[in-house]
Amino acid sequence: MEKFRRCREHPAYDTIAKEFSKEDAKNFRIYENDIYEVWVYKKQMANFLVHEESDKDKITYLSIKRKDKQSIHDWRHFQEIKNELVGEEREAVEIYPKESRLHDTVNQYHLFVVPVGRMVPFGWTNRNVDYTAKVGGHNVSGQRGKENKSLEFLAKETFKHIFRN
Questions:
Q1: Assessment of whether the complete model's pTM goes beyond 0.85
Q2: Per-residue pLDDT tens digits for 131-159
Q3: Is 88 within 8 Å of 58 (Cβ atoms)?
Q4: Which residue of 63, 80, 103, 156 sits 20 to 30 Å from the alpha carbon of 97, by its own alpha carbon?
Q5: Cα dist from 112 to 18, 21, 50, 63, 145, whole Å
Q6: How far apart are the C-alpha atoms of 105 and 148, rounded to whole Å?
């Protein structure tokens, strides 16, 4: 995945310019790379999705779409997007809402990033990472490894290795 670059020309900027002050519009940016387009809403620009008054102007909202419009959700890609666009030491949440709040009209994903220095009130408190590539199976954990090779590729390689020896 390539690094993100800021889109300076996009039809959405015209809409934002009409609806928001110049000062507010500074908190809206669009970035893209070879795979994704990400709309970043900061401070008051994200408030339309912030329901807790004490969090107003503090949450950053990332709207993520693949450029090919496919519905492929890669957790590591989303971690990279979050790290690159808002920072490695900020935490984000993806919500799976109750059905009465569900929005599912396009292949689009949403991350809500909490303020610097704040942790979401659940999840692990330590780091535990293993990028050793391994093929999983029944009661056997699998991992694709740091190189992002697919599990299908790893299974073929493992199969070749077993039958070579």
A1: no
A2: 888 888 888 888 888 875 444 555 565 55
A3: no
A4: 80
A5: 25, 23, 9, 9, 27
A6: 29
